[in-house]
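Assess this today:

___
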Amino acid sequence: MRRKPVPPAPDSLDRLWEAHRAVPLIPGSEDDCCGRLAKRLDVTPDEGRDWLVFCQSLGLARETSRGFERIRDDWEDEELRDAFVDHVFGAQEVLDDLDEHPQSAAAVFDAFEPTVPNWERHRDPEGWESRWWTRVERLLDWAVLFGAATRAEDGYVAVEP
């Protein structure tokens, strides 16, 4: 399953590990987990939910019958990159739009735009583009953090795994 929430990419993966540590070891309700993430990361509860779902997408957390729990595991950078590409909606598509020549975020968005689900466009005809533009920028920034892309002077470039 591919999930959509993508929190803003931090300057380093330390923030991701901080979010990971904020997910409880003993399962808790979604509201409790989101509140815990929001408090520990100093973000809103909605942003805490984005972090929880993002951690779930990366395999750092899972939902059980009793709630969400942290998955204790050692993670290699390659595993995180692969989970990002495989389980975060839009990550693979954004990376597919990159090649060995630098692409601006605008060019990547233009190539990605047909991927935006129609129901998203109809749900918010005036705001979908801005929301998805932000999502593409975040996906690019996370791709850089996970080593799937690099920033170049003129944009972003794909990195072979």
User: Anything to note?
Assistant: The chain has eight helices and four strands. The radius of gyration is 16 Å. The beta strands are 61-64, 67-70, 149-152, 155-158. The first strand starts at residue 61 and ends at 64.
